[in-house]
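quick one, two chains, predict together pls
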Amino acid sequence: MENLEQEANYFHYCLFRCPAPERLINLYVQFNGEHSQNSRFDLNETRTIATIVRMRLDAVGIEHWLRRQGLRHLLSRKLLLIMYIAECDSMHPDFRVCVSGAVCGYMAVVSALVTGVKHLVVGRIQIALYALL
Amino acid sequence: MSDEFKLHSMLYFKNVIVGSGPAGVAAALILDQPGTCLLDVGHRTDYEFPYRTLPEALSNGAVRDILGRNWETLVNISYPLNLHPKLRAQGVRHAFQGEVFEVLDQLGRLIVQGRGSFALGGMANVWGAQLLRYTDRDIAEAGRWLIGAAELGPYYSLLEAHIGISGVCDAMGPFLGDTERLLPPVPMGDAARHLLQVYNSNKTHIPLVIGRPRLAVLTQAFQGRMPCEYSGTEFLTPAQTGVYSPLVTLDVLKSHGNITQMTQHKLLTYTEYADHVDLEVEILRTKEKIQIRTKHLLLGCGTIQTAKMVLLANQQPNWSLPFLDHPPTLLPIFIPRCFGRSEPSRLYPVQLIGVLSGLINRDMISFYSPIGMLWSDLIPDIPLPLNAARSILSSMWSSLLVVQIWESSTNGERNRLTVDQQGKISIKYSDIKPYSNMAKLLSSLRLLGGYSLASLASSPPPSWGFHHAGTLPMKASPSLFETHVDGRLWNSRRIRIIDGSVLPSLPAKNHSLTIMANSARIADITKSCGY
């Protein structure tokens, strides 16, 4: 339970750069509790999650490289769960706010690309450094 | 003998239609007279989404209403694309709780498990409402049809007048056919409007024809029905206001009071005799079995369920039947001219329809606004870290369209459906190839100001779009497990197949309206057959 709360907090921070609302943490824990019996956990993937949270690694950068078709990586599943809850939770009013104006729109795209590339580089290095699978 | 009475403990009807989906209700419209029974399992949902629109639900923090009491919507967190996004939510689950079937690849490995529909109104509770005519060219391209657009024409017209079709006569007119009395088209978002404007000013130089779709969506009040509210809840609730579904026809038939509607009844099997057909039917509430006798049985349970019923009634499990399906391809496109515009609030998802020109076999290209989708559904498809992908969406949302391509089904004879001794349904697909005209489509879209990459295209698993057909195809001289042009099974006088099973091939076009028109045609033949 405590691990799940820690996980939710850290993954939320990686995605949104702010602390997770308590309601989101509760829903995250609730989902994991209700689905743990039906889920198959890969030992390597579980270890990867533990390492990322413990070492405070770049979860979103790492996730991109571990993302795959078919059964998703456990890290993808956990980050996506936070995404879905955040989107549907009014505690995240800015989740679906659209940038207004063409100039701002282009600037936001460029800024997102730069941020994305930075995460990709850090994620790739950390995967190699910590032998994450 | 009157057309409807109780004989000892047996009910008697002149006509029994099984299934309340598009095929069943179209036949019922023609056979709307005393002595006709419409029999159906008739699942309904007991869940009602408590918000009028998706933005309202999001701003109220309705996490469990959107994601489901049992987190149903999150089923794709583990396996993306296994289930059509329209089938995930709690409120629509009842639409696909029918027969389970397994989809296998050519080596016999399980790709995905699907389910048919036992819902009142069938899978059409969640359809996209593109109700399109087949033209003679469609039928010629697909081949093997024994009837032409002229035979279906009167039934198309009758159904369109009943349903209410919105759209306009534009460049896509020759592809879409001669729908009479179109209602005004659905509202257009910025992205679709931009593509259409560029197309209209340069159309001669672009190897792609685009236009407004024909939709069973009411843009104004029509025959006592309210117009569509464009609530953005298409992925959360079935049978939307202003969007036609067979439930509309069931209500009309009920108001006429001619037909006996028996829901919560499941046809178990049937036996044909010289002058009647006996049905064994289970009342689902009580598990009681009853006998129904009829002169004419019209089976419209859906391609997969009807095939199973016919195989088992003829004691031929393990026989393999052909199976047609449209292989869809999905492709997101971005229109940079629309970057940074505000999120459109009231749209119907289907915005445009198109077809590449210069091809012998045309593919149908639908342009969807992702209006009813959660951003989280799309974010993992953007090849960037999740946080960057969300930022990108915030500036691109109004400039994003999702293109869905339906190819004509050319591999139907090689896909095979079987039912084993235990009643388990398996559909083995032949090789599944990626969309072959992608380069031409991408270059055409670029000319319109829409950009994408072939690597962003995805091919959902077979059977994903529920465009099934062709298990009991119509033939001039039908042999085992084929049908006559009038819908009768090869060995039958009184049992007719009215759903997609009888279509001999699938043009690259939504086949729902054609299933309905063909069902109405067969019902009309039944009505006047003289026995």
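The radius of gyration of chain B is 23 Å.
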